[in-house]
Specification:
The protein has about 525 residues and is mainly alpha-helical. The chain has helices spanning about 1-10, 20-40, 45-60, 95-120, 130-145, 150-170, 175-210, 215-220, 225-245, 255-260, 265-290, 295-315, 325-350, 355-385, 400, 405-415, 425-440, 440-465, 485-500, 505-510, and strands spanning about 70-75, 85-90. The protein is globular.
Length: about 525
């Protein structure tokens, strides 16, 4: 009996490529270390947990370097006769680019949060530092896992690991009614998205009999006629689920209130890493798993892109400078508009002969957006230390008292608008525009051009506010001492944005070379 069973048991043994899975694994291990250490550290020493988290995210980001020599896969099924090999985890170029975006974004969020946690103590009950860092690292681990996922089960699990801690992070200000309301809205919308996604995934599995993306792509090309409607419904529902995650209109309603209610570093995290998670998942299911159904998801994503950028930019345009939290709300609506631009190349991939080139435009735009949007949030976090209502009008006189911070915020806003000297923003928008034109989506390119013009107004209006004289009774920005971690976060994003504006082609080459 033993001799017969031994080969069967041996066939189940997997050899794990630990180097390939190092980035999300290191992040998850550090999260557990922080959670356990929190039990034994005295309150006065719990600030060490923040620096441990910063160090852990740095090590996780550095673990990407040994993976640059080529594609690596693990958790693979052996190919049977007539079947292709399939792996659940693949560290290819696409994976590494998105993991770099996620881990670098989480690192900058951690730098903003090291002192941001203490700032909250002045307005409400102290935030639980151990729980905060554990949740942030757990969410980052799920976000780093998602772009490497190559089967639907791993994809959904990674999506939820990234999302569930984010609910708690949004509502972590326990005495703040606005924070609780934001967390509830975020939770309900995300749970709805998950339910729709799981229903779509179950339909796809029912028609193909497999969870692996590459095998799904093959199986969908010869679905029986009686199951074709079920397959199309599965594809459509899966897309709707991911549209919630990307904050695409009309599934964007949770964004403004969630950003306002969350701690400002978490709002920055959601605006960048949340979008990276949603868009990388959307790219994987459309381009890798559903290429034969491009006639279904291509037009749908094109319409979503047009609707999302329009709703986002019009919402940002309506923000009143004197309204409480108007600066954060403007960045929230702006992020919805930017999501519309990010959807354009994915829609174009359905019509393009070279889908990898079109997807490269989305990835390049996401890298640019991550750098400058985190920079804008970092300056907003700095201003919020003296003006917690964070109105756009509160930025009047910033140049007179803090000229460098004002110039950097102006530069970040010009990058988002796509105006010189923010060359990286202009280059990214031209790249996305070209993807739409090359795919024959001229009408979508026109809609995008109109929305870019609309966005110029509110970005330039905020930029002009920075250089106006401050009101006589307004507290001075110069009275504020800038913490070193916040300075580091602003400096890193500024250096990256300036460097990329000097050589923007590096981003496109880095983002689009060898995808998939």
């Amino acid at each position: 009996m033993i001799a017969v069973a031994a080969p069967s048991v041996a066939s189940l043994v997997q050899s794990v490529d630990w180097l390939a899975i190092a980035p999300p694994t290191i992040t998850a291990v550090v999260a557990l270390v922080v959670l356990v250490a929190d039990l034994f550290l005295a309150d006065r020493k719990k600030s060490l947990l923040g620096w441990v988290s910063v160090a852990g995210l740095s090590v996780a980001a550095l673990s990407l370097l040994p993976l640059l020599d080529g594609d690596r896969s693990t958790f693979c099924l052996k190919a049977l006769k007539g079947e292709q090999a399939a792996c659940s985890y693949t560290a290819d170029h696409f994976t590494l680019v998105i993991q770099f975006l996620v881990l670098a974004g989480a690192l900058l969020t951690a730098l903003l949060s090291v002192t941001g946690i203490k700032d909250v103590k002045h307005t409400t009950r102290a935030l639980p530092e151990g729980e905060f860092w554990f949740l942030l690292l757990s969410s980052a681990a799920g976000a780093a896992l998602l772009p490497a996922s190559r089967d639907l089960a791993t994809l959904v699990v990674a999506l939820e690991v990234a999302s569930l801690p984010a609910f708690a992070l949004v509502g972590i200000k326990r005495d703040d009614r606005r924070s609780s309301e934001a967390a509830l809205k975020f939770f309900l919308s995300s749970v709805t998205a998950t339910a729709v996604t799981l229903l779509g995934v179950s339909f796809v599995y029912a028609t193909t009999g497999t969870m692996h993306l590459t095998r799904i792509a093959t199986a969908l090309t010869h679905v029986d006629g009686q199951f074709r409607t079920l397959a199309e419904a599965g594809v459509a529902l899966t897309l709707v689920g991911f549209a919630f995650k990307t904050a695409a209109a009309p599934f964007h309603f949770w964004v403004p209130d969630t950003y306002v209610g969350a701690p400002l570093p978490i709002a920055a995290y959601l605006s960048v890493i949340g979008k990276a998670v949603g868009f990388s998942g959307l790219i994987l299911v459309t381009v890798v798993a559903f290429p034969s159904y491009a006639d279904v998801w291509g037009p749908a994503l094109a319409v979503l892109a047009a609707l999302t950028m329009t709703v986002g930019n019009v919402g940002a345009l309506r923000q009143q400078a004197t309204r409480a939290y108007s600066a954060v709300r403007l960045l929230a609506w702006s992020s919805v508009g930017q999501a519309g631009y990010l959807l354009v190349p994915i829609a174009a991939a359905a019509y393009s002969k070279d889908a990898s080139k079109a997807i490269g435009s989305t990835v390049a735009y996401a890298l640019m957006y991550a750098a400058v949007n985190l920079g804008a949030f970092a300056v907003a976090a700095l201003v919020a230390r003296t003006k917690p209502l964070n109105r756009i009008s509160d930025y009047r006189g910033l140049y007179a008292t803090r000229p460098l911070n004002a110039l950097l915020l102006a530069f970040f806003l010009l990058c988002l608008a796509g105006l010189p000297p923010g060359i990286i923003g202009l280059f990214a928008k031209v790249t996305v525009f070209s993807a739409a034109v090359d795919a024959g989506l001229g009408w979508l390119a026109v809609v995008m051009a109109v929305n870019v013009v609309i966005a110029l107004y509110y970005y330039l209006r905020w930029t002009a506010t920075l250089f106006r004289p401050a009101e006589a009774d307004a507290p001075a920005h110069a009275d504020l001492r800038v913490p070193a971690p916040v300075t580091a976060a602003i400096g890193l994003t500024a250096v990256l944005a300036v460097a990329l504006s000097g050589a923007p082609q590096i981003v496109l080459r880095f983002a689009s070379t060898g995808l998939f």
